[in-house]
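Predict structure. Chain length: 247.
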Amino acid sequence: MKVNAILIDDEPKALAILKNKIERFCSNVTIIGETQNPEEAIEILEKTQPELVFLDIAMPQMSGFDLLSKIKNPTFEIIFVTAFDEYAIEAINHCAIGYLLKPVDNQNLISVVQKATNNIEEKTALEKNKILIENLGIQTFQKKKIVIPTKDGLEFIEIERIIFCEGVDGYTKIHLINKQTILSSHSIGHFNKLLVTQGFYLIHKSYFINIDHISKYLNEGYVVLSENHNLPISRSRRNDFVNSLKK
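Prediction complete.
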């Protein structure tokens, strides 16, 4: 699939390097515009309507997130480019949106562009972008949403609704409040990376729980969660788990 792209980065050298790499390694991408000025970028985006945008996060006049929030109904797929911003990457990951770390690795570029191309074919960008903007404006993490790939498409779930994740044969069964469940094609390790620093804890190789849903800890090595879920804690993790609860 041929994809039209816009490049936005305030650093001339970074912009030139990225353009060169895209032209060398991503033959399906046609660069139809580039700019170092975020204000100009808004005009270009509205005029050209690209399918894909490479967007630097840390720009002095206006961040990539600020720029995105000024676009009405952003239907393009986004690949954020960043030197490193922990909060930014967290927000991006929760929305299944791509990002590249500077300096850009060739294989990562190829992989992220392929994923973006697939997403463009599935036409999921608008909803994901709305969720990203919403998440960035929310200070309380529990009110944010996570994008969960399933066999039918994408589910947009508020994180506070997740009681625990259960690893099942390489997949993840996500247990929500009101006895709802979702089966994701991602492994439990994927959700561990996304949520481990935000109030979730891997109590067992097969169970990753939301600390906010704990109602009781039992000395024999079990934890009771909302809606009476009773799960075992690995012996090797019990001391660390109990200590983390006391902090």
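Summary: Helices lie at 12-25, 38-48, 64-69, 86-93, 106-122, 125-136, 188-195, 235-246.
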